[in-house]
Amino acid sequence: MMTTVQGESVDVRTADGVADAYVAYPDDGAAHPGVLVIQDGFGLRPSLRSLADRIAAHGYTVLLPNAYYRHGRAPVIELPDFIDPAQRPEIFEQVVPMIVELTPELLRSDAAAYLAWLAASPLVAEGKVGLTGYCMGARLAVLIAAMFPDRVAAVAGFHGGPLVTDTPDSPHLAAGNITAELYFAHAGEDHHMTPEHIARFDKALDAAGVRHRTEIYDGAQHGFTQADTSAYDAEAAERHYRELAALFGRNLRT
Question: What is the pTM of this model?
Fold first, then answer.
């Protein structure tokens, strides 16, 4: 059952300043389970707001922060209406330094602020929240679930990565702290997450006893959920919405 949604811009106070964010919620005056959406590398923009609206229509209050807020309010960089990285390689040159800057320490600080905002909002029902992340956001969502296991009930990641690295902050090494249920959908065509990476990530989740399901969306490219990019795959994107609704329905409804 989809419902009418309202959306507005909000400011979330963090330890380092103020993160601008978008919040979407059902237009019924009731409190709903909270969901935190973690952006992809391109950042907070109209297509991601539409994605947040779509999730909210299933009966959730959805917070979508600007992860790059230390560099200004969104849009932090100028983006075309249609993003084709092959045509615009300079976009990556602009966003990669901001992605690298999000160390585990800064992520923990920011995530604590986002979760505190959800906990304090009258729009959000009591209880644990759901996370969904895209591209780099999927990686960050796993780390947040490990950092705040008492606050996170469900995590979804789509065309995410890197989830397995040789560094101490690799998401797969944090699996032992996770209590949430995880759903990960990898793009069939994605050099960011090779079959070996996926197998190592699943093995770490299995060893930690994490409830999880991993699927490969055959033929889909890295970024398949993002409607304003050249990687968009309408069929795969619809499948992602169905899986997300099912995951959150199992874990966020009391």
Answer: 0.97
